[in-house]
Structure formats: structure tokens, C-alpha cells
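Ticket #394: bound-state structure for iron/sulfur cluster.
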Amino acid sequence: MNLNAGFSRLEFRDPERARALRDKLAGLVNEIDDGVTIMHVCGSHEQSIAKFGLRSMLPERLNVIMGPGCPVCVTDLPEIDEAVLLAQNGATVATFGDMFAVPGSIKSLAEAKAQGADVRVVYSPQEALRLALETDKEVVFFASGFETTAVATAAAILSKPAGNFSVLSAHKYIPPVMEIIAEMPETRVQGFLAAGHAATITGWKLFERFVERHRIPVVVGGFEPLDILVALVKLTELVCDGNLSVFNAYPRCCTENGNLNAQKLLWEVFQSEGGTWRGIAHVPNGNLRLRGKYSFLDAHERFDMDLTSLLEESAPRLTQDCICGNIMAGIKTPSDCPLFGNECKPQNPVGACMVSSEGACKIWHEYGGHVIFGDEPGSIPESKQADCFTKPGC
Ligand code: SF4
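RESOLUTION: The complex was predicted; output attached.
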């Protein structure tokens, strides 16, 4: 099968093509006694996998796990605390909806708002820029997301914002955390499925050094069901053949060198520096921080960030039973957590993975987790499997 031939003509949810790809996958992994473990590093991949029931149709010996692909989930507690502190100290804090309910050490931004702080949900940095034009108050854009989203924040910084606008950056950069996962002694990952949108910015060539260094192949994939299945077939082939290379299975968006204009904006405004990814580890070069020449727009520089007063408000939340970190490192799955669906639900999240629409626990809770085709209760009968590619949420 030539995976790229006629790729642009594929109907991305065609059940027949999906079955053919599933059969191809089964043929590949059934020869491998220990099976194959693949990690994707993108909440959008997990959403598609869950929404379209893809994991249910994969051969048993192919294990597809989610890595640290949810930027909200990896935002560290002190980063949330800083945003809460700024809001409580009188700034207007504007942020994306997913960040609103993420628990901090003491409280979330949603809880701070309920106590009177001015916290606004925005859909873009430009909306935060407009807010700043409408008020004399300090407006802090609490920015989260990977390199894809950080480009929009960079554009906002370069747009000569009002003097009362600043950015509290919790932006993260994916390639360094892949290095951390690859180096973890307990890692089971034999291949990485890289996020097509991030690679559209960075280009696929960026992963070549990673492959060389860690001897783990990488395939860049898109987000429709057939995008994912094609990428899995190619990645499984690379793993089974011991072929250490990068393959672009998302050629309609991603190119070898990516979007050079976007990269220019990104690195004009941001520099990478080490930082803690919640529950995972300190990631060298994993955080995106404003460069010194934009320090006048950096909330870290503009405001007193001493968290003592906030941390003295009450005892810190107990989150020690949350295994988000292990889930994002690919060591556990949401259903391994005893709190999943019990004490921890989207309405009452204990950990960040149950808050964001890109968080593994929220996605598994929404779509029912790991459904198995077959005779088990709750399984999807063979006759209905085709629906899973045409009816989202099946
Ligand atoms: Fe954390 Fe809740 Fe997920 Fe458990 S179910 S890992 S407590 S977010």
C-alpha cells in the first residue's frame, strides 16, 4: 500500500479505508510477541482517538498512549498561583477557558473570580488586547499552549499593545519534553506520533536530531480518523523494520521546514528556558519566556510575584493521589487512577487532566474510556463499528 498516493483524495472518515488500515496494522503487530507501544503528544489526537472509537478497533498488540500533549495539564501549580495572585491583587486576568478551572495550590482562577477577582475568559490574545484598550486597569493575558498557540501571543506582543497590557506566559515547547520521556528509565515508547499542527509551525525536519539521539522513529500525523490510522501504520512499520527516521503523514499542512514566518515571530519574542511541567519533571528548555527586550510586557517583571500571602490563605489542596504526571508520561492510564469518575469528575476536578478538553482524564470521562469491541458489556458490536467514523461521539 502506498500511503501517500492519492492521500489528498481520501475521505478522512471512510470506514472501508479505516478497516483496511486496521487490518494492515494487525498484520504488522501480530508478528511482534511483545507488541508495539506508540505515544502521541497531543490532546487533539487523544480527542479524535476517543471520539471516533479508534482505540477500540486497534489490534491488541498495538498500545497507543497519550503523552504530555495537554498544555493546560502541564501548567505547574505556581504558574496558576501567580495568575490567581495577580487577579486577587486587582489586575484583570484574561485567559483561555481551559485554564479557568485548573486547580492551583489554594484555588483556581474560577474560585478567585467567585470571590470577586476580575477574571475573563478570552478566545484569543487579540481579545485580551481589546480588553486593555477598554480599561485603565492592568490587563494580564495568562497565556498557555504549545508553540502553535505561542505564535499568536508573539503577534500580540509585537502589535504595540496598550501600556496597561502584559503577558504571564505559561507557554510550553514540546520537543524538549519528548527528550525527557525518551530518557525515562520506565519508558515503553517505541515510536512517537507528533502533532501535525505544531509540526506545521516547526517543520518535520526538527525531529531528525531527536530520532538520531534517541533511536525512536517519529511520524507527524493529522487529526481526522484516517490521518491517525495512516500515521499509526507508517509508525508501526518504522518500528517493526527498525527504521530510524521521520515520516510526514500530514503533507497537506506540514512541510520539511515549517512556517518560517511563524517561527520568526515565535523566536523574536520568546526564548526557551527550563521549567517544571506539572507532575512530570523539570524540562530543560521546555518553557517559553519573553525575551529581555520585551520585559516591559512581562508580568513577571512588572508585578510583585511573592506568593506568600496567597499560600498562607489556607492549607494547600491535597492532590497527592492524582496520577496526572504518570498518565502524561505514558506510565499509567486514567482508569488506573482510583479517583477517576469517583472523587474526580469534570464538575469537580482534582487534577488538571480532568479540566481541559485536551486532558486525558476529561476525554476518557467524556467518551467512556477504553471501549473494547467484542462481547464485553458496553462494547461496540462489529455491525456498528463503521458508524464510529461517521458519527462523532459514537
Ligand atoms: Fe488526577 Fe483526576 Fe485524572 Fe485521577 S482522574 S489522574 S485525580 S485528574
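RESOLUTION NOTES: The first strand starts at residue 36 and ends at 40.
TICKET STATUS: resolved
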